[in-house]
Amino acid sequence: SALNISAGGALLAVRRYLKRSSQVSVEIPSAPLPQLGAAPHFVRSVRARVIRVTHSAHGHLWALKFTPPLT
Questions:
Q1: Nearest-CA neighbor of 21 among 70, 68, 65, 69?
Q2: How far is CA 1 from CA 16, 25, 34, in A?
Q3: Please, which residues have CB within 8 angstroms of residue 58's CB and are 6 or more apart in sequence?
Q4: pTM for this entry
C-alpha cells in the first residue's frame, strides 16, 4: 500500500522483505478525469531504488527513490 508518493519517490507498506539498494518497478494508477466519465485505466510504471527499509510487526516500510524522478 502506498502511504506517500511524491515526484522523487514513495513510501510503501509491504509484507515482502527487500534489501536496501534493491531495484524495483512500481505501477502508479492515474486518477480518472471527471469529464471522461468511464475513462480507460491508465497505469504508469516507474523504476525505483529502495533507500530505506523499516521493519514492523505487520510488515515492512520501503522508502523508494524514483530513477528518474516523476515529471
A1: 65
A2: 12, 14, 24
A3: 13
A4: 0.81
Tell me the C-alpha distance between 16 and 25, whole Å: 14
Structure confidence by residue, pLDDT tens digits, 33-44: 666 556 566 788
Label the pairing between strands 43-56 and 23-29: antiparallel
Q: Which three cell numbers stand for residue 2?
A: 502506498
Q: How far apart, in whole angstroms, are the C-alpha atoms of residue 8 and residue 63?
A: 11
Edge-to-edge strand ranges of the sheet holding 59-66: 2-5, 9-14, 59-66, 43-56, 23-29
